[in-house]
Amino acid sequence: MKRIPKLDKTVVMYLIFGVLTTAVNAAAYYVCERLGVPNVAATAIAWAVSVLFAFVTNKLFVFESRDFSLKGILAEMGGFFGGRVLTGALDVGIMFLAVDVLKMNSMLWKIISNVIVVILNYVFCKVIFRKGKR
Questions:
Q1: What does the alpha-carbon distance between residue 8 and residue 29 come to, in Å, rounded to a whole number?
Q2: Contact call for residues 63 and 126 (beta carbons, < 8 A)
Q3: Burial class (CB in 10 A: 0-12, 13-18, 19+), 10
Q4: What is the pLDDT of residues 62-76, one digit of tens each?
Q5: What is the DSSP letter of 113?
Q6: Cystine design at 37: which of 32, 67, 111, 116 (Cβ 3.0–4.6 Å)?
């Protein structure tokens, strides 16, 4: 009987904190909505809160970066937020092309797009937090 390959600890932690980040996003959106914040603003606030949460958890618990210098934190944060903006734009672009232009199944393409985004975010994080690991 073949053994199932052991998952890398970093991948497992990334997935766990990814689920928690999604929960933070939903909770922040819910709070904004209850406070009467308009939809687009609530979505933007929820995104910012969840990306900040993801930055802290990815830095400390997933990639275990220990660079706490101001220069190091700002560099990591800039790369992290920049990567998330890029993958967010890619997500929007994929969905626009697949659903609005090509009239393909929206849920199928949302799943495909999310898989691409999650993989790219992981790769970006591996690069961003590599230098701060000591």
A1: 32
A2: yes
A3: middle
A4: 999 999 999 999 999
A5: H
A6: 32
